[in-house]
Structures are given as C-alpha cells and as structure tokens.
Amino acid sequence: MADIRHVIEARRSVRRFDPRPVERDKIRLCLEAARLAPSAENSQPWRFLVLDDPDRIRDFSSRVFSGLYAPTRWAAKAPVLIVILAELDFLANRAGKFITGVPYYLIDVGIAGEHLVLRAESLGLGTCWIGWMDMRKARRFFGLPRRIRVCGVIAMGYPDSSVRKKTKKRKALDEIVRWNGWGE
Ligand SMILES: Cc1cc2nc3c(=O)[nH]c(=O)nc-3n(C[C@H](O)[C@H](O)[C@H](O)COP(=O)(O)O)c2cc1C
What we know:
Blueprint: H1 4-10, H2 24-35, E1 46-51, H3 54-64, E2 80-87, H4 90-100, H5 104-122, E3 126-130, H6 135-142, E4 148-157, H7 173-176
Antiparallel strand pairs: 1-2, 2-4, 3-4
Helix pairs in contact: 1-5, 2-5
Flavin mononucleotide (FMN) binds at residues 12-13, 15, 72, 128-132, 152, 168.
C-alpha cells in the first residue's frame, strides 16, 4: 500500500488517458474512499453518478462540454466520468449556511472528491477534477430533482503513456501561511 505522502506528492491532473476500461472493482475502491470522508453534521451530502459506458460518456460530453465549455472536450475521451452531486440536508446546509454564511456541502463534496482522487492515484489511475462544464445541462441530462446539486465531474482512467509528471507549480508556504494573526 503506497504511503499517503507519496500519493499526495505524486498526484497530478491527468487529461490524456489510455482507452482501456477501468475495472469496476477499482472504481468502487475509489468511491469507498470518498464514502469515508468527514462532513458537516456527518450529513454526507455527496452522491456519485458514474459513467463508464462510452456511448453515455460521448452523449453527456457533447452536451456539457460544448460552446463556452469546449476547452473541457478532452474529457469526452476519459474511460470514466464521475459526476459529483450533492443532496442538500436541511440542518447542515440550509440552516447552517443561513447562520454562518458557509455552504458546507461544497466543502464536504470537495473532501470526498479528493479522497476519491488520492485513492485512484494509489491504484495507478489518473484523474482530473472538472469544474468548467455546463452544470444546468448536466442536471437536465440526468433529469435530476431540485434538491440535487451538480458540483462537478472527476475524469478517471489509466494515464496515457505520453503523460509526463510535471513539477507542481505552487505558492511558497510563506505566501499562504500566517502565524497567530493576519498582521496588516
Ligand atoms: C474544483 C476544481 C475544478 C477544476 N476544473 C478543471 C477543469 O474544468 N478543466 C481542467 O482541465 N482542469 C480543472 N481542474 C484541475 C486544475 O487545473 C489543477 O488541479 C491545477 O492546475 C493544479 O494542477 P495539478 O492538479 O496537476 O497539481 C480543476 C481542479 C479543481 C480542484
């Protein structure tokens, strides 16, 4: 089992995939990792709609990655698309957000999605979070009820052999961390 530090450091967004399908058992292991994530009030708002049928992926992609969202068309060639949804709970989300101003469900699905992504990395799978897509068309494509929100997609598959792991461009710790106060 790969250690967590190695998995975190090795993960990169992958946008070119080997066309071979991903075993459902492996997809399930990733979903299981997402299931174990923490959430506000333990409300577990995440829902996952898994597309691993190439025809469904093509139809879905032609709707949600078109026009303004055409830069995301690469995702049509991913062997798996996992649509990240949230089913809003009254206490944690509507009441909680009203009081604190924080939409907790977005934090919750973000944590769950990253659990999924890191587990995928540990299994040799590449992933990429997708936020640049037509959320309304995605909702219509699946006929989702109003209480379900579309939060994004995670593309998944075995990385194409041409994928090179670039060094991560990240801000230095000094830029993002302040100790004991904002100090301006
Ligand atoms: C919430 C979220 C949305 C993203 N949306 C997209 C997207 O629509 N298209 C895309 O190509 N990459 C998308 N990304 C991937 C980021 O571009 C990528 O994580 C970032 O550039 C850092 O690179 P790395 O993941 O390889 O470390 C998204 C990432 C996150 C976390």
